[in-house]
Amino acid sequence: MARLGDLERSVMDVLWSSDAWSIDGWLTAREVAARLDHERDLAYTTVLTVLERLERKGFVRRQRAARAHRYAAADSREAVVAEAMMEALGTADDRGSALVRFVGSVSAEEAEILRRALEPAAAGSVDPDEPAPPLGDGPVRPDGSARSGDVALPDGPVQ
């Protein structure tokens, strides 16, 4: 998947957060332009061009609605970020070393999320559309008891 420029990222940010002000998550180019207006002084045609470019790149879906088109993000922000991470990893000569360096740069909370996500991967049953494993419950055995030495992390978003 192609990379996003600054303006494209701003437009995608509007689309990714469209549920806050759209009933169904779809916005017209004018609605996107209005949301961007406080950040940048952009012409409607510029926003329309960016939306069309994002559609060609596969980031945006478009549907006809009366006399205008409406736009929505084709994938979640998390899916796009994961794809970018996979592309970056694909450029490494030694994927293992790149992964080790990446893991060395994450916080303890992020490392716990990765550890929990890797458990099903090791068993061969990963669904990439599943949300990240929740924090706070602590790792458990099949019988429901906690594993010794494992630490339960507090609930809340990862910063």
UniProtKB/TrEMBL annotation:
A biological process term (GO) from this entry: negative regulation of DNA-templated transcription
Keyword Transcription assigned: yes
Region (Disordered): 119-159
Keywords of this entry: DNA-binding, Transcription, Transcription regulation
Pfam family of the protein (one): Penicillinase_R
This protein's record includes keyword Transmembrane: no
InterPro entries per the UniProt record, alphabetical: BlaI_family (IPR005650), WH-like_DNA-bd_sf (IPR036388), WH_DNA-bd_sf (IPR036390)
Tree of life domain: Bacteria
Coiled-coil annotated residue ranges, if any: none
GO molecular function, one term: DNA binding
Family, similarity comment: Belongs to the BlaI transcriptional regulatory family.
Name of the protein in question: Putative transcriptional regulator
Organism of this sequence: Frankia canadensis
